[in-house]
């Protein structure tokens, strides 16, 4: 049962019909910035199947792992108790980052997606979600959400899942083999 750190990367890919930033076990070296001059930041989590259908894992319409944004530049974190969730082999996990001025942030900043996990379940664990920020100086003093480098290590720790059993080829009939 892998327990991983998943980095919110700067580069994008397309998985199960969704083009989004990568959510991988390694980080990129170049960061991206998104204006995020809000009081709170959080995530919403879903699983996405091979046909492109999404099923919410976090409570519908509710941001989780909500943190208050820092005054100066810095990194903040918050936790969320990810529930046990059944997955199909080709499912991917989608994490959308939201910001806002209430404790249920609702302005979408960015979307991240894993590869197809090849898993049978996303396991119950307490995720720690980290958000990195940079604040500009005078005269604007704008706050930016940053991700994609070791300088701005926006990430999710304790991302835990159970791999699906290996696919086994079974002979059927006249020597025809099907994978099950």
How are the elements arranged and paired?
Elements: E1 3-15, E2 18-24, E3 32-35, E4 40-48, E5 54-56, E6 64-68, E7 74-82, E8 85-86, E9 92-100, E10 107-113, E11 119-122, E12 125-135, E13 143-147, E14 155-163, E15 169-172, E16 176-179
Parallel strand pairs: 2-10
Antiparallel strand pairs: 1-2, 1-14, 3-13, 4-5, 4-6, 4-9, 7-12, 8-11, 9-10, 11-14, 12-13, 12-14, 15-16
Explain this structure to me?
It is a single chain. The chain is mainly β and 180 residues long. It has one domain (3-179). It has no helices and 16 strands. It has strands at residues 3-15, 18-24, 32-35, 40-48, 54-56, 64-68, 74-82, 85-86, 92-100, 107-113, 119-122, 125-135, 143-147, 155-163, 169-172, 176-179. Strands 1, 2, 3, 4, 5, 6, 7, 8, 9, 10, 11, 12, 13 and 14 form a 14-stranded mixed β-sheet that branches.
What is the terminal-to-terminal distance? 22 Å
**Shape category:** elongated
Q: Poorly predicted ranges (pLDDT <50, ≥5 residues)?
A: none
Average pLDDT rating? 93
Assess the beta-strand content as a share of residues.
Answer: over 45%
Q: Helicity range of the residues? A: under 10%
Count every helix, treating DSSP H or I runs of 4 or more residues as helices.
Answer: 0
Element-level helix/strand string: EEEEEEEEEEEEEEEE
Structural class: mainly beta
Let me know the largest β-sheet: 14 strands, mixed
Tally of separate domains: 1
Specify Rg, calculated over alpha carbons: 18 Å
Number of strands: 16
